[in-house]
Amino acid sequence: MFQRILVANRGEIALRIIRACRELGIETVAVYSEADRGSHYLQLADEAWCIGPAPASDSYLQINRIISAAEIGNVQAVHPGYGFLAENAHFAEVCRSCNIEFIGPPVQAMQQLGDKVSAREIAMKAGVPCVPGSDGLVSDVDEAVKVADRIGYPVLIKATAGGGGKGMRVAGNEISLRAGLQAASAEAEKAFKNAGVYIEKYVERPRHVEVQILADNHGNVVHLFERDCSMQRRHQKLIEESPAPKLPEEVRQRMCDCAVNLVRESGYTNAGTCEFIVDKNYNFYFIEVNARIQVEHPVTELVTGIDLIKQQILIAAGEKLPFTQADIRHTGCAIELRVNAEDPENNFRGSPGMITKLRLPGGPGVRFDSHVYEGYTISPYYDSMIGKLIVHKPTRDEAIQCMRRCLREFVIEGIATTLPLAKRMFNHANFVDFSVDTTFVERTF
Amino acid sequence: MFQRILVANRGEIALRIIRACRELGIETVAVYSEADRGSHYLQLADEAWCIGPAPASDSYLQINRIISAAEIGNVQAVHPGYGFLAENAHFAEVCRSCNIEFIGPPVQAMQQLGDKVSAREIAMKAGVPCVPGSDGLVSDVDEAVKVADRIGYPVLIKATAGGGGKGMRVAGNEISLRAGLQAASAEAEKAFKNAGVYIEKYVERPRHVEVQILADNHGNVVHLFERDCSMQRRHQKLIEESPAPKLPEEVRQRMCDCAVNLVRESGYTNAGTCEFIVDKNYNFYFIEVNARIQVEHPVTELVTGIDLIKQQILIAAGEKLPFTQADIRHTGCAIELRVNAEDPENNFRGSPGMITKLRLPGGPGVRFDSHVYEGYTISPYYDSMIGKLIVHKPTRDEAIQCMRRCLREFVIEGIATTLPLAKRMFNHANFVDFSVDTTFVERTF
Amino acid sequence: MAKPVENEEKGDSFDLDRIRKLLQLMKTFDVSEINLQNDDESWKIRRGPRVAYAQPAVSQGFAMPMAAPAPAAVAATAAPATPAAVPAGVTINAPTVGTFYSAASPEDPPFVSVGTVVKSDTVICMIEAMKVFNQIQAEKSGRIVEILVENGDAVGFGQPLFRIEPV
Amino acid sequence: MAKPVENEEKGDSFDLDRIRKLLQLMKTFDVSEINLQNDDESWKIRRGPRVAYAQPAVSQGFAMPMAAPAPAAVAATAAPATPAAVPAGVTINAPTVGTFYSAASPEDPPFVSVGTVVKSDTVICMIEAMKVFNQIQAEKSGRIVEILVENGDAVGFGQPLFRIEPV
Prior knowledge:
The complex is a heterotetramer, with 2 copies of chain A and 2 copies of chain C. By secondary structure, chain A is of the alpha+beta class.
């Protein structure tokens, strides 16, 4: 086992990793930018090193500085958290070449699944349904038109290296397809230095459902059931929950099996998530693999009782999974709300500043994962998430009641937050009866 | 169901009840003394009434004022919490005579179980083992000596109305028995206006194990397994956990069955706890019933997933228990630590004052039930408990690791607390391997 | 704090004249904190040295949001323990929680009115608690200058009922 | 603190004249805090010394407890962002995290000593990061008056290495 781990991240996920290490008896080395100097969670690490000024590009994204901190900190492994370098295969490679284990999947699996076209090929090989489309990149416009004729309009044009909505276009007919192809390709070339695009059937108003996976280095792969993340705004998830409401049991089971097969096929290990979209007839299609721990992992921890961060560390240390698929039970309903320092009244503009008053909700079944406290200053340099409020109750109805109760207790003063939006979401009839899709929040609020 | 409940208590348990009501869709009326004016939890009630000055005898113990607040607050029921009027049968009677339901057991059951001699009689009738002793009060010294000769020394002299160690004496031989009888009787007469005493076999260094019970008004009685509360100091519990470590499964099962039988025999309903002492050979003896919710109820909530406060309310409203004994599962290990504003360096002297800095532990499996926050002032008028830190993990080892981790994170400044003692307790080898009894803390720390 | 206000029409900003008048009033009556809120605006003002965080209990007392029968409940939080919120001058406060009655029965005249001079044993109202009508004596002497609650109001312990001044 | 005001229509920004008047009023009436909010604006003003509580983030920076190799790590927290902890005078700070070496090799003399006059391009030490020995230049000119770290110490980004004074 590792004696000492470097946490290559900040904020709530850094705190989460430090907590897991502490419980496992592993020492931690934290790194921080000048903007995070003095944050309380750094005191909980055994050692903390400043690695650069506030901008992430000069600190949390500086591979050489993080490796350097890992060396002077004398660690055996690095946990990348999510974001920053978590899905950077090069970083994983550098770590391992320095004899420091990167707590994450093998580099090859990261690379293959990181590329949308090769990920799709692996999925097809594993028998996992993908959205009908071109098998790989389209070489020219005529090929694209041929594919679109076969699968039917509307179609989605996607950059193979894209993400966050960039290099993406919807085309309802041949004319807009021809125009969109050029635009998407140019945008992708500019943003990702990779002009490759492919096209696929456009699924209207889908739900987003994902399956949590754990795989060790001994060939054991299990799923930890699904999370529904359809409540999102501009591709940013706002609410995640498990089980996925109204998903037929048979579909759920098939989706979980698909995720396991896909992970097996790719040689992926450690924690990962297979993302699917689900259409209104409960057809599901593989979208991508998130090759890291996710923000919403506590949802799965609560319904399964399994600590995902600890499992990541144990897997990276070469341990076998301590349970089989049959041992993993799903209990009750867990819902997570991301609380962001954004002003919903002002187009979700970021709202950095000092938290002058903080009253946290609590009580049975309530967990708040956060590094903030009264007097903490939200930095303008990083993402706006203040924390994650997660509730776990026997039923979804009770979980919603509990979340409403928590939102009534929750006081954050000094900065604008998304709590007012959260109140409206948890009181909206369509959310309560779950007549939602990934466009619901933008259409409604 | 009730539409509106008055919470006849303060602090963390008042907040706990307000939270449960909110999730059930029930409005709450809070009452407060002048010392508690402005506490944040009062804002979470739908209405709050000042009922008197700071001393509890002039406010939280003033039955007429609480009933008056219940009347102007227009409630259908009163939840008494623990302490104050929770086990006051007269208060329960007054509530019900005003057509306000008292959320607790029937008055007759409270009275019978509140008296140690009649409680013992009920236990014997239900086949529950009691400590060998006089069957009822001893009428004179000669009878006491006869009983002591039969059951063997050392014996314990106990006041029937006693509590908290008052009116209690240990006698190792006939001489000290004769002297102790008089002293205990006089003390009890003075403290409780009831000189009646009885004697029983003195069990040396016992463990304290209790069984949580729920009983509805339709004849359904279930147990929610046991809690070990052997870690106590001067009859004040400090750490409670479930399952009771090292208790043979067969003993545990028998103890739980006894508790169910006792509750059935007494006609008791609502939530209650049967307390037992366990000697080193795992013989257990009934001690008393706590006819109310207990401070340590979250331990049971975490291992069973059942919300005890909600069940209390539902039972009082006439609902049937929504589960049978077979439905109730015990998962993992939960440990509760009471955090008190007392100075362990100064003989546990109370340490009221303002909390100037507060950093709470958190993360998976951690719950902190408390009404305090940074800037809150601990009043000198009421008990010293600041809050309850409860962890729930798959195993006891993991729970202890988690608790240690939490204690490392926990910062309370401005007042002295029992956190330093807690750290020592959770690191003590005898606690870890659970070679402890109810005298362990006093002997060791 | 104040929830977003909806008054889109309102062009002008804070009226400093009104604020000055309010500050004058606060000084005159030695008010340390005031918290006004309506549909359009929220004013929160503190006077005197900042103890700021040191006394959240006090400052929160004023802001306590209450549901229906709110007015009484809010008033109930303005009891003697927080002198700044009490109307200036000497008050006679409720010695118990209950329902306030200004007269012995609906047919009777009120025990006292503005201008009545009371002695310490003068019955000034009744407070009903648990079906019992308690006759409340003034416990102080002076002239009633303001009646602070309405007939039939629920009152909390310590809530000011009458303001009096020396005769 | 008060969140940024949105005022899209409003061409002009805060009316400093009105704010000055309000501040004048606050002083006159000894107001410590004022908090005004309406549809268009939110004003929050505090007078007087700030209480201790307001600055936990800063004070924690100094108190950060560290385990072994603690001295270096603690020093690392005392970088320019927390000026109170920085040695008086001008310092040359580590431009990267790594291991500090005062000389090119154990056999060589140190690049600089107390009393050495440096120019901005003078090599003053090496910092090893990822097996690479980076020659660090002074970037400032002056006379070395104190060397703040030991040969072989781990240093954090921004950690003061040398104190210098003008020649």
